């Protein structure tokens, strides 16, 4: 709150262990309002865990996370109220298979935001149109391709009017030809000024859309900067090594 | 024809088990008890579901003082013969001093509304079946709930839904669909188990058949009773198989509504996420008297 920039998420010295395995070993990161932060790193580097700590799907082992003026890691926090304003999209889509596409987007609007059915339906169709699925509102998730399901998942989060969107390897489970449609929607969001934290292996997306690229390895942030700084002039050997393997 | 009938009614085997004469006479008597068996079966099964749900949530709780009693209860009930449980509840409870006082002290309890017996006589039978079935139902429900991919709960919670909301609107509806065949199998089991109540004198089909067999020195009334059980269990069993097939279809691969599988719309996640079907062979061990 008192920082000079408008940080919407502030992560201070975050630690996370699963038993003896220390996955995060002191991460400091601030995300400004409207900023798109892309987090890169080899698998097992802790990027997904970091993201999942932000909306407390994982309990941190130490350090703190602030979202706007609330300490997410605090004991007395109303976590459901925090999660209303933090959208999250998963690698495995996690659509509710017993509900239609529209039902998926309406459920939390009605139950959490207490919107009336008609309003929730209107917003659902609006968001589904935005992600290019206005013709699929009455379909069931199992009738859609993976790419379409993922776009429904994005619409489902957007319908809650989130202040931040977290994307956890959202294209990793997709066939190559379906990746583009999902990335296009994410670019659209970024252009619209959405604050985003994106864990991905899509280097092209990172280069084109990110305001800042963060490279993580072994539970710490190794290097960060603008895409051209990190991609074209990496300073750390670990970053160079990682980018060398990807390219 | 007459020759055949004479042979049929005098031959040792057919006479003893399939006598048309005895079957004809016992049919109305056993048919009258058919609703009694159905009532005990349906009633105890329906009340077992909320009990089973409670036990299932207790067993899944992170709090040991909820988890331990539920685990103990389920283990004890599933690990002992139902007939033994019936005997304990029937004859044990009536020996409690306050139980006798309660029955004597309350004219409405004592009200002899069926065959001159107080209604707790029936209630006890109903309760013991229900308490027994709750333990089995708890395990079915728990397995069903835990078979729903973890991502479903995470997605619901990350949208800001509370734990009870996520359970009610996301997890339970999917669970019900998935465990329906297993639950129906449990009903078939409990319906057949009502026969054990004949051991304590509840006038359901098996007791009526036994009385008839005793008075005629003939076993054919048992065959009639068996036929009445089958009238319900065979169609239900078929339905269970149909539901299982439909479930496998809608969860595993192509249902009618699904577009044809092409490289473009195969979603391997769906297949993987639902391959963890609950075991449908969760049947109780054959503890029969």
How would you describe the overall organization of this protein?
The complex is a heterodimer of chains A (247) and B (289). With 247 residues, chain A is of the alpha/beta class. Chain A contains nine helices and ten strands. A six-stranded mixed sheet of chain A has the order 6-7-8-3-9-10, sandwiched between helices. A four-stranded antiparallel sheet of chain A has the order 2-1-4-5, covered by helices on one side. In chain A, helix 3 packs parallel to helix 5, helix 4 crosses helix 5 and helix 5 runs parallel beside helix 6. The longest helix of chain A has 16 residues. Chain A is globular. The model of chain A has no long low-confidence stretch (mean pLDDT 92). Chain B has 289 residues and is an all-alpha fold. Chain B has 13 helices and no strands. The C terminus of chain B is likely disordered. Chains A and B meet through helix 2, strand 6, helix 3 and helix 5 of A and helix 9, helix 10 and helix 13 of B.
């Amino acid at each position: 709150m008192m920082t000079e920039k408008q940080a919407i998420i502030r992560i201070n010295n975050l630690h996370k262990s699963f038993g003896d395995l220390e996955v995060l070993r002191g991460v400091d990161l601030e995300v400004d309002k409207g900023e798109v932060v892309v987090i890169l790193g080899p698998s097992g580097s802790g990027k997904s865990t970091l993201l999942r700590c932000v909306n407390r799907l994982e309990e941190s082992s130490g350090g703190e996370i602030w979202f706007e003026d609330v300490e997410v890691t605090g004991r007395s926090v109303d976590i459901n109220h925090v999660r209303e304003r933090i959208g999250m999209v998963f690698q495995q889509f996690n659509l509710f298979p017993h509900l239609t596409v529209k039902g998926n987007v309406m459920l939390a609007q009605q139950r959490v935001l207490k919107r009336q059915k008609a309003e929730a339906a209107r917003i659902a169709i609006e968001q589904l149109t935005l992600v290019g699925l206005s013709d699929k509102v009455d379909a069931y998730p199992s009738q859609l391709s993976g790419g379409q399901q993922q776009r429904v998942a994005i619409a489902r989060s957007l319908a809650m009017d989130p202040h931040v969107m977290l994307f956890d390897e959202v294209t990793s489970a997709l066939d190559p030809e379906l990746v583009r449609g999902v990335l296009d929607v994410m670019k659209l969001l970024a252009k619209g000024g959405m604050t985003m934290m994106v864990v991905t292996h899509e280097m092209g997306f990172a280069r084109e859309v990110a305001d800042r690229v963060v490279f993580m390895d072994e539970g710490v942030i190794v290097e960060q900067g603008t895409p051209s700084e990190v991609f074209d002039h990496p300073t750390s050997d670990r970053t160079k090594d990682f980018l060398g393997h990807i390219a | 024809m007459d020759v055949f009938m004479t042979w049929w009614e005098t031959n040792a085997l057919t006479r003893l088990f399939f006598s048309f004469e005895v079957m004809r006479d016992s049919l109305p008597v056993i048919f009258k008890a058919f609703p009694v068996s159905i009532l005990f079966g349906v009633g105890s099964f329906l009340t077992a579901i909320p009990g089973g749900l409670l036990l299932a949530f207790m067993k899944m709780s992170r709090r040991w003082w909820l988890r331990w009693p539920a685990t103990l209860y389920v283990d004890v009930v599933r690990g002992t013969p139902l007939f033994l449980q019936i005997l304990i509840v029937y004859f044990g409870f009536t020996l409690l001093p306050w139980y006798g006082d309660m029955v004597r002290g309350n004219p409405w309890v004592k009200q002899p509304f069926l065959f001159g017996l107080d209604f707790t006589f029936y209630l006890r039978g109903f309760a013991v079946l229900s308490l027994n079935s709750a333990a089995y139902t708890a395990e079915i429900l728990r397995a069903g709930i835990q078979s729903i991919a973890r991502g479903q709960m995470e997605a619901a919670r990350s949208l800001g839904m509370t734990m009870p909301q996520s359970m009610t609107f996301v997890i339970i509806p999917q669970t019900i669909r998935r465990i329906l065949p297993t639950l129906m199998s449990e009903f078939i089991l409990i319906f057949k188990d009502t026969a054990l109540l004949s051991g304590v004198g509840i006038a359901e089909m098996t007791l009526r058949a036994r009385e008839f067999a005793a008075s005629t020195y003939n076993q054919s009334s048992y065959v009639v009773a068996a036929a009445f059980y089958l009238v319900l269990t065979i169609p239900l069993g078929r339905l269970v198989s149909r539901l299982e097939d439909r479930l496998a279809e809608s969860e595993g691969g192509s249902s009618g509504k699904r577009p044809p599988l092409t490289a473009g719309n195969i979603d391997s996640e769906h297949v993987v996420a639902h391959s963890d079907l609950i075991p449908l062979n969760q049947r109780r061990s054959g503890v029969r008297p």
